[in-house]
Design brief:
Layout (H helix, E strand, L loop, with lengths): L2 H23 L13 H32 L4 H28 L2 H19 L9 H7 L1 H8 L2 H9 L6 H40 L3 H13 L6 H39 L1 H17 L1
Helix pairs in contact: 2-3, 2-7, 2-8, 2-10, 2-11, 3-4, 3-5, 3-6, 3-7, 4-6, 4-7, 4-10, 8-10, 9-10
């Protein structure tokens, strides 16, 4: 991470704090921050910002890269394999909306959160270079189900009690989603790159130089028609490619898992709402 990025981040945080202070003391604020005192809206906004932005956006970003960069599929083929995931989002989105209206949006959100956490923490990290393409597509179906069930209940929950503040609440939620998503994709990019080279260096550190020499010599024997220097270079390039592929393979697994952990953090507002509702019921009884 460069010093410039760190300095800009510090300036951004300070600027945000100054803006919030100015809004709180202003007689005609642009944003009425009292909207966050409404529990349902606070939970909905937090879930949008943290769970959707910091976790789901990482998954949206990583899946095409997994199919193209690790599995070696073309962009078209990668899109076909993501289709199963996208199809279940499309199927369960209206289902979640119907259940939110007829049942209770909180229960639908609880179910979606549990399915998402199971998918992102326990299923996605098992995707690797050796996973068959069709199996990889099938493994993303529970993820599609959870994401399809996510948007309707969290939106209904957040906006139901806003009244005249609905337009403000809608704007803030979309803004929070995009800001959280920018953080999510940046984190995924950084993690994927960092873990790849950490694994690459680790693989290099554990190599036995004599075995590497044997591998290079065996490859050179298959390239006897080439000049010795060129055959040596090609053999080393082949060995480098294998190391690179394995390090990228491990990096995708690590990054998928970290995205799931961010989902766990993003689910904290949902857990807060569950505990809060249970306490309210206990008091009312």
């Amino acid at each position: 991470m460069s010093d410039t990025i760190v300095y800009l981040f510090i300036v951004s945080v300070i600027s945000l704090l100054l803006y919030i202070i100015s809004e709180l003391i202003s007689k005609e604020p642009l944003i009425d921050f009292r909207i966050f005192l409404i529990k349902e809206y606070f939970v909905g906004f937090s879930v949008f910002f943290l769970l959707l932005g910091f976790s789901m956006y990482q998954v949206f970003y990583l899946l095409p890269l997994y199919y193209e960069n690790l599995k070696g599929l073309s962009t078209f083929d990668a899109g076909l394999h993501i289709l199963a995931f996208a199809l279940f989002i499309a199927i369960f989105s209206p289902v979640a909306g119907i259940l939110s209206d007829k049942w209770n949006e909180k229960y639908v959100l609880y179910i979606a959160t549990v399915i998402y956490l199971i998918s992102s923490i326990f299923i996605l990290p098992n995707l690797d270079y050796y996973t068959p393409k069709t199996q990889a597509a099938l493994m993303t179906i529970p993820l599609g189900v959870s994401m399809g069930m996510f948007f309707a209940p969290v939106t209904t929950l957040a906006l139901r009690k806003l009244g005249e503040k609905t337009s403000l609440g809608t704007g803030l939620m979309h803004y929070g989603r995009f800001v959280g998503g920018s953080f999510g994709t940046a984190i995924a990019t950084n993690d994927l790159y960092r873990h790849q080279w950490e694994h690459f260096e680790g693989i290099n550190a554990m190599q036995d130089s004599s075995h590497i020499r044997m591998f290079i010599d065996s490859v050179k024997e298959q390239l006897v028609s080439l000049p010795e220097a060129l055959a040596e270079s090609k053999a080393k390039a082949m060995f480098y490619g294998v190391e690179y592929l394995q390090s990228l393979n491990f990096s995708f697994q690590d990054t998928f898992f970290i995205a799931g952990l961010f989902g766990l953090i993003g689910a904290l507002p949902v857990f807060y709402m569950i505990v809060s509702d249970l306490l309210e019921k206990k008091v009312n009884q």
